[in-house]
Amino acid sequence: MPDQLVHAHPAASVDWLRDARRARLLSLVTLAWLAAESSLGLAAGFSAHSVALIGWGLSALAEAGASLIVLWRFTGSRTLSPSAEHTARRAIAVSFWVLAPYLVVHVAHDLDVGHRAAPSVLGIAVTAVSLVTMPALAALKRRLARRLGSGATAGEAAQNLICAVMAAGVLLGLWANTLGWWWVDPAVALVLAALAVREGVRAWRGHACCH
100 vs 110, which has greater pLDDT? Predict the structure, then answer.
């Protein structure tokens, strides 16, 4: 979405300001869940030595960064600032990009030393919960993003959707490993790295509103 359309000057709109408060509230709710998700995901990932599960746990930190950016965007005088929206949208793009290099390096390392993911009950449980909750959060944020004209909020919603896709991929990898298909776990991690790069480019260019 072009920067000049980010605000159709809704400064006097009570509905717009109400939606901005809702965006802040959803970001706070997301931060609370991501704190638990990241801790549990990383614990399960290192225990099972699953690169996809570890990457998923780390992605929660990138998502938390996106939520913090949206909180910053809609706080105080920045709430009605087009320049703050532009800065927040670019920062969201960077939050997508920080994950990809880690995933690629970690996959290369694990393949080199021959590590294989092991089944993880905790990993299955926490990713299953995210698979259900994150799409609902993303849907709410995308609706708010359209009403607010906020690419930053749309980017945060995209982060939540990627979290759900990652959860599905991790579950697939853990299940496939029980069949001896060890390569599914690193393959999922590489696909997720590519997806994060793509979404970062979209956010940087301002296309997230239409995603």
Answer: 100
